[in-house]
Amino acid sequence: MAIEKKKFSKPPISLDQQVELLVQRGLRIDDREHAKHYLRFIGYYRLSGYFRFFARQDDPARERIEEGTTFEDVLALYIFDRKLRALLMDAFERIEIAVKAVLAHEGSMAKGAFWLCDAANFDLGKHADIMENMKESVGAREGRRQQLFVAHFYEKYSDEMPPSWMIAETLSFG
What we know:
Mean pLDDT: 92
Distance between the termini: 35 Å
Number of helices: 7
Shape: elongated
Helix content: 55-70%
Strand content: under 5%
Radius of gyration: 26 Å
Structural class: mainly alpha
């Protein structure tokens, strides 16, 4: 059963209108200028994801806000989430760097500098996909070089791919 699609028709609304809409939905806003400041620099759309945590359970549209909820409550949740994400990103970056360094070093010590390029070091027939990802990562296609150290490698050496420790620096867990 196909759902009939319609054209998007919501017009943009001013900061004053955004504040008024939130008040109509039950959010207590004691300082409208303060709220407008955050709506201007964070955006209604981004903050709307946090409003849902304060939505009334009896509202099927999840647009009405629980009585007593303030703009500061929503803002505090947003700030907490932003700080938590920053802490997690720092931790994930450290983990990613450590995993890449250990894999590059241990693989190189065991199988040589170009172990990532050798299909014999992989199973399940996925090495062709891995090579495509690595080529994309180092910019081996179309003469494109993403990193200065990769460009230097290709200027100096004739190998198709750089050694694993260089490739590891270009790969992303994302």
